[in-house]
DNA sequence: ATTAATCCTATTGCAAAAGTAGTATAAAAT
DNA sequence: ATTTTATACTACTTTTGCAATAGGATTAAT
């Protein structure tokens, strides 16, 4: 049970973009350098985030990426959903999934309970939360040096 | 992000074993039939559960499997851990994982927060909870027919 | 001895994830 | 206008780990 790299990298990329949104944005290649992600692979990440409508580079190719809406209105779930159909820890809890056992399976209840708490966590955390956390961590780190 | 079939099947097998523990246990092949799992594949599941010390067939090969301890003392986490090293949604939150960013990465905080709530869920649910749920669901189903 | 069930290791098959390549395009700099 | 630089988009390759099967060994009851 591991989360995929696209969602992981996507999160980190979004934090970078969020922090530079009020400062003319950030280039893909700069995200690549700061986060140690191959620029070529990051291509896919950025592309998916753009298609999902979370980021834009409206002023042309050399303007850098910015968020399309405030960070507190971007849930982590939105970022996840740029790469995945949603949160689903096990196939049988999806709509339209047919299973003879579905009404008498305590395991299914267990898994759907798990799915709910994960989905809640993704709903309740926003990019703003991560951004604030990020700033705090960096401040702390600077103070230690 | 999907849970693997071993843990899924393992859960269902454990419920079957739990319900038959006070009744001379249950054979692997009967679990296989009741749960529609290939007997050959179930081999691995049962084996892992036995190695983990959760089940036994103490009276010999023809006695059927029973639990080694009461269902309320078997956490779902114990079952998970028969198949997995533990709960870990992303490599970088493991001990000994080296990353330059580790002290200043808000994403890591997010993921380890998620890991905690999942681990808690697995800790707080026991096989007894599933068993009771199971009995209730079956009673309800019988009433509907 | 034979049978029926488990025990245990090895191996195969396959699908999805991770990552690379390459061409097209578009804005900006010269 | 041409060159440069960065993104846009599709296709492809490589890798990995999961799911499942195979098969012989073992054990205990018939």
From TrEMBL, chains A, B:
A Pfam family recorded for this sequence: Rrf2
Keywords: DNA-binding
Single annotated GO MF: DNA binding
Superkingdom: Bacteria
Gene Ontology CC terms, in alphabetical order: cytosol
Protein name: BadM/Rrf2 family transcriptional regulator
Taxonomy of the source species: Bacteria, Pseudomonadati, Bacteroidota, Bacteroidia, Marinilabiliales
